[in-house]
Design a protein that fits this description.
By secondary structure, the chain is mainly α. Helix content is 75%, strand content 0%.
């Protein structure tokens, strides 16, 4: 898997987002979605060019098929949250146009609020089980390689925090009917945590998962 260093990981992440974007575009034909997703892809690709490209040998203890399974699940889950982030911004923007009664221009090109809210829910409903499986497979991988399911590594902790945020989003929606603006805001906050878990842990909080 091309994730042996932060350069490769920061390059692989936007490719996962692009795959999901094209699938979503094929299914729902929301052309304007690219205007909200491609900046995320661009920033990720740009950041990858800054990091060292030296390929390091993986620790022999970590060489396992669990690497592929865990990595794919984690990145596809994060890609789903990235798409929900873009949809969340679109929702807030469309809501603002409605409240200001500015019913022209970009407003006419954005989907209605109901469609955006439903897409946001579906993307989080897709990303949440993927993240759950990524955490589970990561724990199994850690157990087989290191003898412990959980080491309270910074990335493990922040991945759990991210999981709890998206679990809260789904719980509040199903039990208290939190939809629309509240769900959009929480999806944006959740993706900010995803980015911090991806970059912040690697660059600031040194741990077992850190590349540098």
């Amino acid at each position: 898997m091309p994730v042996t260093n932060i350069h490769e990981a920061a390059s692989f992440f936007p490719w996962c987002i692009l795959i999901l974007f094209f699938l979503l575009e094929y299914r729902y034909k929301i052309g304007l979605l690219g205007s909200f997703i491609m900046p995320v892809v661009f920033v990720l690709m740009l950041s990858s060019s800054v990091f060292p490209r030296e390929i390091k040998e993986i620790n022999p203890l970590l060489k396992s098929y669990w690497l592929i399974i865990h990595t794919i699940l984690a990145f596809l889950g994060d890609a789903s949250f990235a798409m929900a982030f873009g949809i969340g911004i679109m929702y807030l923007l469309q809501e603002r146009y409605l409240k200001s009664k500015h019913l022209s221009g970009l407003f006419l090109r954005l989907p209605n609020l109901q469609v955006l809210d439903e897409l946001n829910y579906r993307l989080i409903s897709l990303g949440f089980p993927l993240l759950t499986l990524a955490i589970i497979t990561g724990a199994i991988w850690a157990s087989t390689a290191l003898g412990k399911y959980w080491r309270w590594d910074p990335k493990e902790v922040w991945s759990l925090v991210t999981w709890l945020i998206y679990a809260l989003v789904l719980h509040l929606r199903l039990t208290l009917g939190w939809r629309g603006r509240k769900a959009a805001v929480l999806s944006i906050i959740g993706f900010i945590l995803v980015i911090f878990t991806f970059f912040g842990v690697n660059l600031i909080l040194k741990g077992f998962h850190a590349f540098v």
